[in-house]
Write a structure and sequence with these properties.
The chain has 295 residues and is an alpha+beta fold. It has eight helices and four strands. Strands 3-2-1-4 form a four-stranded mixed sheet. Strand 2, helix 8 and strand 3 form a beta-alpha-beta unit. The chain is elongated, with a radius of gyration of 25 Å. The model has no long low-confidence stretch (mean pLDDT 83). It is found in: Cell membrane. Its main location: membrane.
């Protein structure tokens, strides 16, 4: 089992455990705000399932129908997670609309808050693991899952504080009002997740630091060539795609030009593991007057 799959499976386990704690807190207190927090945890379970599917599909090798691989499955997963978060927020708002006219009192708020605190600690620790490992593995699905859990921690903290305030003051309206605020926060969080993930579907360039590294590698490894131009990049989950034109002296043999290309490709893959590199070799009269990387 690879690291991505193991992390996705562990996320599913954490999600189920956290949902159980929050559900128990809601049953004990009857709090609408805690119910909204528990409903978001159902989304956590769903997104963990989607992430598990995505990392397994993305790990499949290229085939006849998908010659560039299945990497975008992770991006689709991240978009789906964002959509589920938005739907959960809308459902919570519906519950708030129903309950705000007749807010109920709270039962055993202390125990409920304690359970929420335990659930938040579990979510917070696992969110850090997912975001750190997701960035290391270039996995949008895992990063999106981690960001969602981090947002869940923030909402749970707000819910716990609000439930405590409602219990101490006796102002029952605080609970549904807080649930509404949680729903709005979740709604914004889901929209941000969708917006951040869509860039991968649109073949956005790799981050600027990776582009700078590519220019450096081409310059350092391209001895014998004249210049490189039309350097293009895109990313799809953990995969990186690079293509450019390499200008060589007109009298250079095909074999020698091929050696230079191999040297550049090896250097790129050494610094950006898994990068798929395509180089189009051109004679010297194809050199660009501007915008080219001189070697």
């Amino acid at each position: 089992m690879d690291t991505r799959t193991w992390l996705a499976l562990a996320s599913l386990g954490v999600g189920v455990g956290v949902f159980g704690l929050k559900l128990a807190a809601w049953r004990i207190t009857g709090s609408l705000a805690i119910l909204s927090d528990a409903l978001e945890s159902i989304v956590n379970i769903g997104t963990a399932c989607i992430a598990l599917w995505a990392v397994r599909v993305a790990a499949r090798p290229p085939d006849a129908e998908h010659p560039y691989g299945h990497h975008k499955a992770e991006i689709l997963s991240a978009v789906a997670e964002g959509v589920m978060v938005v739907l959960a927020a809308l459902f919570i708002l519906e519950e708030v609309w129903t309950g705000i006219g007749d807010p109920a009192g709270l039962g055993a708020p202390g125990l409920g808050i304690a359970l929420i605190a335990v659930a938040s600690a579990a979510n917070g620790g696992w969110a850090l693991v997912l975001m750190r490992q997701g960035r290391r593995l270039h996995s949008p699905a895992l990063v999106a899952d981690g960001r969602h859990l981090a947002a869940d921690v923030a909402t749970s903290a707000g819910v716990g504080t609000g439930v405590a305030a409602a219990a101490l003051t006796g102002w029952a309206w605080i609970d549904p009002a807080l649930a509404g605020a949680v729903a709005v926060y979740i709604l914004v969080s889901g929209w941000r997740m969708i917006r951040a993930s869509v860039s991968g579907l649109l073949d956005e360039s790799v981050p600027s630091e990776e582009q700078d590294a590519l220019h450096r590698i081409i310059t350092e490894s391209g001895a014998g060539a004249v210049e490189a131009h039309d350097i293009r990049t895109r990313h799809a989950g953990p995969a990186r795609f690079v293509d450019f034109h390499l200008v060589v002296p007109g009298e250079m043999s095909v074999e020698t030009a091929h050696v230079i290309c191999d040297r550049i490709e090896t250097a790129i893959r050494r610094e950006i593991p898994g990068a798929q590199v395509t180089i189009h070799v051109e004679p010297e009269h194809k050199a660009h007057d501007s915008g080219a990387l001189t070697i």
